[in-house]
Write a structure and sequence with these properties.
This protein is α+β, with helices and mostly antiparallel strands. The protein has 4 helices and 3 strands; from the N terminus they run ααββαβα. The termini are far apart.
């Protein structure tokens, strides 16, 4: 079951995720929080947060990814199919620049 097929569940979990995110005190903890909440909401075992730098998505943090996979996914061209798929789903992307200006992103 994907998250879109169960709006009632999403309505319960999403406010909790926002509350936890707002409790984060710095950029890195906020990214970790976002990844953890996305994994929980999606029922997934692993995932990562990326920042867009030029024409690449650069991994900033990850949870539950195999250590041999991390170096392969650390820097990904925006033209990669899986990056295009992620960028094509706006609910999966968060703009945290205003919340953490000290990160300089």
């Amino acid at each position: 079951m994907d998250r879109d097929s169960c709006p009632a569940l999403r309505e319960v979990l999403y406010p909790t995720a926002v509350f936890r995110f707002n409790a984060c005190h710095d950029f890195n903890s906020a990214l970790n929080c976002l990844v953890r909440e996305a994994l929980d909401l999606g029922g997934m075992d692993g995932g990562a947060a990326y920042l867009i730098e030029g024409q690449e998505a650069v991994m900033q943090t990850h949870i539950g990814l195999d250590s041999t996979l991390v170096p392969q996914l650390a820097r990904c061209p925006l033209s990669a199919g899986y990056i295009q798929a992620a960028m094509g789903r706006p609910p999966e992307m968060f703009d945290v620049r205003e919340r953490f200006p000290e990160a300089g992103v």
